[in-house]
Design goal:
- It is built from 8 helices and 13 strands.
- The protein has 232 residues and is of the alpha+beta class.
- It has 2 domains: 127 residues, no CATH class; 87 residues, Cytochrome c-like domain (Cytochrome Bc1 Complex, Chain D, domain 2, Orthogonal Bundle).
Length: 232
């Protein structure tokens, strides 16, 4: 009986320790005042709220995640737990969404210099959509050539000359980026094609740390500058 009581007491002390540690860490996490500003390109759910596409600042305040819109409105939701993961997430910052059938739900927030936080567990079988905060880190930009090879080259070929196997797979002739037609497009037009895609081409995405996300602005401009060097 004494042994059982001793074990129960130890178990209660352990639970209390975990409880205190969690909130102590949460306080430290929120006390640093760090946050990320994102231009979210689509409508998303945050708790019981549906937020339109727009600019938002994400920050941690003690045991809460605060989301502030451009007009100053703030919505808070309880943090489920903290997360640890790939260094790229922690360095650059990410938003992870549950890509559910009824819309995108904010699931995880990774703030540079800290671990991540979980506000909505992604059910098994659901897709995950990542939005990178890399554009906030000016030191992270790829060269135009590197970004092109990681994204566009598999379909448009080396130096934009095309790829016969890609044409066959998609059953269409993929535009040659060294053509007069493409070269005549403005930077604004090319930026729109890369970031928004077309009926036959999805927005250009890159894979980092196991998550696919759209190219951040500085990488888009680097790719465009590189494409401008292509010759027929």
């Amino acid at each position: 009986m004494r042994e059982m009581q001793s074990r129960d007491a130890m178990a209660r002390r352990f639970v209390a320790l975990v409880f205190v540690t969690f909130f102590a860490v949460g306080l430290a996490f929120g006390a640093n005042g760090q946050g990320m500003r994102f231009q979210v390109p689509y409508e998303f759910k945050f708790g019981s709220n549906v937020l339109p596409a727009g600019t938002y600042t994400f920050s941690v305040d003690r045991g809460w995640l605060a989301v502030e819109s451009a007009n100053g409105a703030v919505i808070r939701q309880n943090i489920v737990t903290r997360l640890s993961g790939p260094a790229e997430l922690i360095r650059s910052g990410y938003l992870i969404f549950d890509n559910a059938e009824n819309g995108r739900i904010l699931s995880e927030v990774w703030t540079p210099g800290t671990d991540g936080i979980l506000v909505h567990p992604v059910p098994k079988g659901h897709g995950r959509l990542a939005l990178s905060g890399a554009d906030l880190d000016a030191t992270r930009a790829y060269s135009g050539e590197a970004a092109y090879k990681l994204t566009c080259a598999k379909c448009h070929g080396e130096k934009g000359k095309g790829d016969a196997s890609a044409d066959k797979f998609f059953q269409l002739k993929i535009p040659r980026l060294n053509s007069d037609e493409v070269r005549a497009k403005s930077d604004a037009e090319l930026t729109e094609l890369i970031t928004l895609g077309t009926k036959v081409m999805p927005p250009v995405e890159i894979d980092e740390a196991g998550f696919r996300h759209r190219l951040p602005p500085q990488d888009v401009q680097a790719v465009i500058a590189y494409v401008r060097t292509f010759k027929q």
